Amino acid sequence: MNKREMLHAVAAGLGTMLWPAQAGAAAEVDAAVLPLVQPVVRHYAMLVHASYSDSLAAALAMQQAIAAFLAQPSADTLKAARTAWLDAREWYGQTEAFRFYAGPVDDGKGPEQRMNTWPVDESYIDYVRDRPDSGLINNPKAPLTKAALAAANIRGGLENVSTGWHAIEFLLWGQDLSETGPGERPFEDYVDGKGAHADRRRQYLAAVTGLLIDDLRYLIAAWAPGAKANYRAKFERGGLESVRRIIIGIGALSRAELAGERMEVALNTQDQEDEQSCFSDNTHRDIVNNALGIENVWLGRFRRRDGSLLQGPSLRDLVAAKDAAQAERTTRQIAASIAAAQAIHPPFDVEIRGSRSAPGPMRVRATIDSVLAQARELGAAANAIGITRLNMVKP
C-alpha cells in the first residue's frame, strides 16, 4: 500500500470510529420524540425529492448548453457549457447528504458510481499530454453509447472513470496543467478537421451527459410521492429506523467523506489528483455545497432553484423535543462548518499547498476540524433521541 492508498484507507476508516460498529435504533425512545418521528421522515422524503428534482432541472439546462456547443463549437458556446456545468454542480452537491445508508443512490443497484466517482484517470477517456492517442475516444473500436460507457466505468481500476460529472468536466475543461487556473481544453477539439476524432468526442460528451440525466431521473422516481412500491414508500413506513438512516447519511458525509476523503487526504498529499473537481477548479464549491446539504437535512429546509423555500419538520425539531441545548449546539456547529468552508480560497489545489502553518492549509484544516466537531455533535444528537449505536459507513 503506497502513501496515497494508506491515506484513503484511513479516511474511509474514520467513518466507523464515530460510534460503535453494531448499528441499531434503541428499543426505548422518549415519549416526547415519538409523535415527531413520522412528520420528520415524511418531510425528509419530500426534501430529497425536491433536491433531486432541482438537480435534474439544472442538469437538463447543462445538457441543453452542451448540445448547443456540440452543434456549433466555439469559445462562446464552450464557455456557456462550462458555466452550465458549474451551476448544475451547485445543486447536485447538496444531494450528497442523501448517501451512505444504502438508499437508492448507492445501494447495490444505485447509480452513484456512474455519477460522481473520482479521481479520474484522464487517459482512460481521451488524450493527455504526451499521450495523444490514449483513451476510449481515440480507439475507433470502442463503442460510445450510453450502455457501453456505463459498462466501461471503473473497469480494470477505480480511476478508470468513464461516466458522470467528472467525465463531463474533463471533456469540457481538459487536463488541469496550470498552476493557478483550471484546464484549458480548446473548443477546436470538437471541430472536424482540427481535433483528432472530434466526431467521437462529440458523441462521447452527448452520451455521457444523457446517462447522467437518466440516473437523476432514476433517483427522482425512487423518491417520488404517491407510489406504492418505490423506496420512498418503504422509507416513510420506517419510523425511527428511517431517522437513523437520515443521521447516518449526514454523519458519514461529515466525517468519513467530507472531512476525510475530500479534505484530509488532499491536504496531506498536497496532490491535485486528490481534489474532487480538479479540471474546473471547482472543489471549493463542492465542499461548500456538501456542507449546505447537511444543513438542509438538519434544519428540514431547502432553498429551491426557483427561489422558493421548502421547510418543515426536521431533525433539529426532533432533537430539541428531548434536548434543546444539544439541538442548538448541533445547529451552531453545522453553521460554523459552512462558514469555514466558505472561507477556503479557490483554487483548492493551491490552497492545500505549503506548510501546516501557511494560510491556505490552515483554512482547510479549520474546516476539517469544524466538520469533525459537527460529526460529534450529530452523534450526541442521535443519542439524545434514543439512537445510540450507529455505523457511519452503512446501515
Keywords:
two-stranded antiparallel sheet; mainly alpha; A middle domain of Talin 1; 395 residues; globular; single chain
Describe this protein's structure.
With 395 residues, the chain is mostly helical. It has one domain: M75 peptidase, HXXE motif (A middle domain of Talin 1, Up-down Bundle), CATH 1.20.1420.20. Helices cover 57% and strands 2% of the residues. The chain has 14 helices and two strands; from the N terminus they run ααααααααααββαααα. The chain has helices spanning 3-13, 34-71, 75-95, 112-116, 146-152, 165-173, 198-222, 231-236, 240-269, 283-299, 315-320, 324-342, 348-351, 359-384; strands spanning 301-303, 309-311. Strand 1 (301-303) and strand 2 form a beta hairpin. Helix 2 (34-71) packs antiparallel against helix 7 (198-222). It is globular, with a radius of gyration of 21 Å. Residues 1-27 have low confidence and may be disordered.
Within the CATH hierarchy, at the fold level, what is the topology?
Answer: A middle domain of Talin 1
Number of strands: 2
Strand order of the largest sheet: 1-2
Q: Provide the CATH superfamily.
A: M75 peptidase, HXXE motif
The portion of residues forming beta strands comes to under 5%
Work out the count of structural domains: 1
Shape: globular
Low-confidence stretches: 1-27
Number of helices: 14
Distance between the termini: 28 Å
Helical percent range? 55-70%
- Structural class, from secondary structure content? mainly alpha
